[in-house]
Design a protein that fits this description.
Elements (H helix, E strand, L loop, with lengths): L2 E5 L2 H10 L8 E5 L2 H4 L3 E2 L7 H10 L4 E4 L3 H4 L2 H7 L7 E3 L7 H4 L1 H10 L7 E5 L3 H9 L5 E5 L8 E4 L2 H12 L9 E5 L5 E9 L4 E3 L4 E2 L2 E3 L3 E4 L4 E4 L6 H21 L6 E10 L2 E8 L7 H4 L7 H10 L13 E8 L23 E4 L2 E4 L2 E4 L3 E9 L2 H12 L18
Bound molecules: adenosine-5'-triphosphate and magnesium ion.
Adenosine-5'-triphosphate binds next to strand 7 and strand 17.
Length: 422
């Protein structure tokens, strides 16, 4: 089977690494990929916004299965393009169509869906510039802190949490005034939930599903969960508080009703459903859905999948997941993200990275690197994820931290406190 995976981050490196182990695989292509994926797959240069170019690559390389890593092409309708083009219809496509991808692409759509299917989530209301006065009044009915969300995709920056009513009201005006363009033409205001977050992932064909290992990521740049939000500074799996009793609630109250809803509404949904959850005194609530895997969660989830992943991905894309199972690796896995100094604010690119070959007992997933004149250099804020196995998450983290010291570039930074909250 020839496979084309779309994306270029640590998530895609980890998915590619797992697919590459499958005896079913003939050739693996990654577009655009990164220097990490180039080590064992063929990188193809392509913009993910250029659907026609992706279609051409698919035909040129006789792709049987296409897997989409990031959300933007899905929300913009790449699946619909493949389903509608006569010469691409035969390709198995893993990723929801434009309508189904609204579960991530529109916070209001997702909230309405949860409401229709009885999925527990924070109370909310949605406002536009026409109903801004109602929005300001609605905020008065809530208690601090206040949660405001741009309805559409905003590159992870569209959620604001404000401490005072005055700030929340000002932010509502700014958002509806066009802070994120069309993405904030509608704003969802939510009740604030207090608890600890985790991520649960399902792979679905639109009807049946298998659960992947759960994970917890670390979003803030600073130790002790302080400072600005990032794309993710590390992740651990399993999540100690996600015991059998808690996971049974997650499956019964959240995963099953979501899957039943997707099927009952006739959504064309193949691929990953990412449940962003919060544990409120032992009860799970949905914070958000994403229509793809998380990054860096994938860098711990893929290593904990013991089964060959390719038959599962292929079955999900073909509507044939019924009766299939996913075996988990009993070991824990953790990843530590090494980032460029200054990230998530301004940071440099192009610094030479050394010491990758000295890493021992960990996997190095490239997130933001480039190959320039024979050197691997930094090429993004999040540069590489160091994943290790262990008997438990602390054991795994110890190995990642040992290896994190061996990789060097100017102003490298990473959080040294991962797992200490668990
Ligand atoms: N109702 C809520 N109560 C408490 N915290 C919340 C709530 N909604 C969101 N948050 C916090 O804000 C973060 C971002 O919210 P959300 O996941 O909806 O945004 P997002 O931009 O889609 O995130 P991502 O980039 O991970 O997809 C959450 O991880 C959580 O920490
Ligand atoms: Mg999201």
């Amino acid at each position: 089977m020839n496979v084309l995976l779309l994306g270029s981050g640590g998530r895609e490196h980890a998915i590619a690494w797992k697919i590459a182990q499958s005896p079913l695989l003939s050739k693996l292509f990654v577009a655009p990929g990164n220097p990490g994926t180039a080590a064992f797959a063929t990188n193809l240069n392509c913009s993910l916004a250029d659907f026609a170019a992706i279609g051409t690559l698919t035909l040129t390389h006789q792709i049987d299965l296409i897997i989409v890593g990031p959300e933007v092409p899905l929300v913009e309708g790449l699946a619909d393009y493949f389903y509608s083009e006569e010469n691409l219809k035969h390709v198995r496509f893993l990723g929801p169509d434009k309508h189904a991808a609204q579960l991530e692409g529109s916070k209001d759509f997702a909230k309405q869906f949860m409401h229709r299917h009885g999925v527990p989530t924070a109370r909310y209301a949605t406002f536009t510039s026409e109903t801004i006065e109602e929005g300001l009044t609605y905020l008065e009915t809530l208690e601090a802190p206040y949660v405001l969300k741009a309805d559409g995709l905003a590159a992870g920056k569209g959620v604001l949490i404000l401490d005072t009513l005055g700030e929340a009201q000002e932010s509502l005006k700014t958002l509806l005034g066009g802070q994120f363009g069309a993405s904030s033409a509608r704003v969802v205001i939510e009740e604030f939930l207090t608890g600890i977050e985790l991520s649960v992932f399902a792979l679905t064909d639109g009807k049946d599903y298998v659960l992947l290992p759960e994970a917890k990521d670390y979003k803030r740049i600073g130790e002790g969960d302080t400072g600005l939000n990032t794309g993710g500074m590390g992740a651990v799996s399993p999540v100690p508080f996600a015991d059998d009793a808690f996971m049974t609630k997650v499956i019964d109250r959240i995963v099953k009703p979501t899957m039943t809803g997707i099927h009952a509404e006739g959504m064309r949904y193949t691929g990953f459903v990412f449940f962003g959850l919060i544990n409120v005194k032992g009860e799970p609530f949905v914070i958000e859905y994403n229509c793809r895997m998380g990054d860096p969660e994938t860098e711990v989830v893929m290593p904990r999948v013991a089964s060959d992943i390719l038959p599962l991905l292929n079955a999900a894309a073909s509507g044939k997941l019924a009766g299939m199972h996913l075996e988990k690796d009993a070991r824990a896995a953790c990843t530590v993200m090494l980032v460029a100094g200054g990230y998530p604010e301004d940071y440099r690119k192009g610094d030479v990275i050394t010491g990758i070959n000295e890493v021992n007992g960990s996997m190095v997933f490239h997130a933001g690197t480039a190959l320039v004149e024979g050197n691997i250099v930094t090429n993004g804020g999040r540069v590489m994820a160091i994943t290790s196995y262990g008997n438990d998450i602390h054991d795994a983290l110890r190995v990642s931290y040992e290896n994190a010291q061996k990789i060097e570039w100017k102003d490298k930074y990473y959080r040294r406190d991962l797992g200490k909250d668990l």
